Amino acid sequence: MKIRMLVILSMSLLLFSSCSKELANYSYYKNLPEVSGTTRDDPPLFYIIKVDLGYDWGDKKTQYSLADLTPVISDGMRNLFSSKSEFDYTIEQEEQLKQEIMDMVNSTIHRYESFKKVPGIKTVAIVKKQVFEFR
């Protein structure tokens, strides 16, 4: 019984340490507001989405660029999300949506001369995603 508990505990610690090591590689910019709007479906559906943007741990250039460009990035996300249909918000399409968000954010950052050499974001966390009929 003691050996089995030790094996389970060891495996749990190993799993936890590998997960926390992965998470420790990124800082997350969490100051973007929720974005809401309607999809391109007929009839349109209403969406509310909140994302956090991951960048390399200690990358102050990306952090500052995200803070400076928050209104522009929020507008870009609203445009991106409004161009989507209900299908694009399914769990099967989530990785594609994250990639599109990452591409849009990085192209927005690099559009400005003062941010041309900023590394940009490396990952996207969708922390809230609601798509529903509005009645």
Automatic annotation (TrEMBL):
Alphabetic keyword roster: Signal
Signal peptide (from-to): 1-24
The protein, known as: Flagellar protein FliL
Phylogenetic placement of the source organism: Bacteria, Pseudomonadati, Spirochaetota, Spirochaetia, Spirochaetales
